[in-house]
Amino acid sequence: MTKLLRVRRRTILAAVPALVASPAIVRAQGSKPEKSKVVLAVGGKSALYYLSLTIAERKGFFKDAGLDVEINDFQGGSKSLEALIGGSADVTAGAYEHTIRMQQRGQPIKGFVLIGRGMQISIAVRKDLAAQIKGPADIKGMKFGVTAPGSSTHMLLLSWAAKGGLKASDVVAVGVGAGASVVAAIENKSVEGVSQTDPALTILQDKGLIEIKVDTRTTKGNQEVFGGPFPAACLYAQPSLFSKTPNTAQALATAIVRADEWLQTASPAEVANTVPEGYLLGDRAIYEKSFAGIRETISPDGLMPAGAQENCLKFLVGADPKLAADKDKIKLADTWINEFAQNAKKRS
């Protein structure tokens, strides 16, 4: 190699350090997915919490990216996580916080495209009990409907209870799934309250059946509760997805980013027309109202906002004494990768 060629080669390499550092991601930018058939696990797909996933499916964004995605819907996020760990799913749409909790347990799970930049979960109590519940200390011994024990809805409940000096065993978490089953749990008084997502919350509010105590469905609410943006739903997977099939990971990220972007400008009516009829829970107007209420907490670009991971860790530490003891061992940099969403943004 001549001196001139060596100089040119060094110049090119110096100009693109990110590409040299991440060769798999570089290959993924313009290649077909290694796996066209992908199994994706989710817990409570009908909730607005996972709306970008449904939009990517219904608008054909996964197909446009070269993927045939089989979506398996479980009762809650903890169940969909189990599917990923057990090997029956290639990727999971779930709460980012699971990547932190699994790292604590020695499982290297990593998120790579964001769906929600706000938690989008609220804690509410039945209206007939609201007067006697002034704060979290007053819920001792009560039953709350969560999507599934161990899911984000459960963790928010435990965090709120801890602020009232209560232990995890002082409140009872009952798995009621998401959607119509949440409304039914309040209507038949099988629970005293719920920690849940929309549209079920807005339906219960509209019926005058609940009183909200903690609300993270808006940017303001996340600022008040967490001090800033909070990483909620995302796609996460085991490291092999990125090392062995980076083009597949890129295709998934590209589809979700397209959905995130579409939701920034779509009208509530367009969204209601796109999702399955069953997601409306019999009331299109309430569904549209629910979407309008949470729209600002949907990620605009699939990227992790600055400070959001730290906000999530602080939240988990406050709710889980075991994690609090291990917090100094957690490496947040190992729980997230932004490059796939960045590449998707460039394409769009």
Notes on the protein architecture:
The protein is an alpha/beta fold. It folds into 2 domains: 17-119 and 230-347, Periplasmic binding protein-like II (D-Maltodextrin-Binding Protein, domain 2); 122-215, D-Maltodextrin-Binding Protein, domain 2, CATH 3.40.190.10. The chain has 18 helices and 10 strands. It has helices at 3-15, 17-21, 23-28, 51-58, 61-64, 77-86, 97-104, 152-163, 180-187, 200-206, 219-226, 240-244, 246-265, 268-274, 284-294, 308-319, 321-326, 339-347, and strands at residues 37-43, 68-74, 91-95, 110-114, 122-126, 143-146, 172-175, 193-196, 210-215, 233-237. It is globular, with a radius of gyration of 21 Å. The two termini are 39 Å apart. 50% of the residues are buried.
How is the topology of this model organized?
Layout: H1 3-15, H2 17-21, H3 23-28, E1 37-43, H4 51-58, H5 61-64, E2 68-74, H6 77-86, E3 91-95, H7 97-104, E4 110-114, E5 122-126, E6 143-146, H8 152-163, E7 172-175, H9 180-187, E8 193-196, H10 200-206, E9 210-215, H11 219-226, E10 233-237, H12 240-244, H13 246-265, H14 268-274, H15 284-294, H16 308-319, H17 321-326, H18 339-347
Parallel strand pairs: 1-2, 1-3, 6-7, 6-8
Antiparallel strand pairs: 3-10, 4-10, 5-8, 5-9
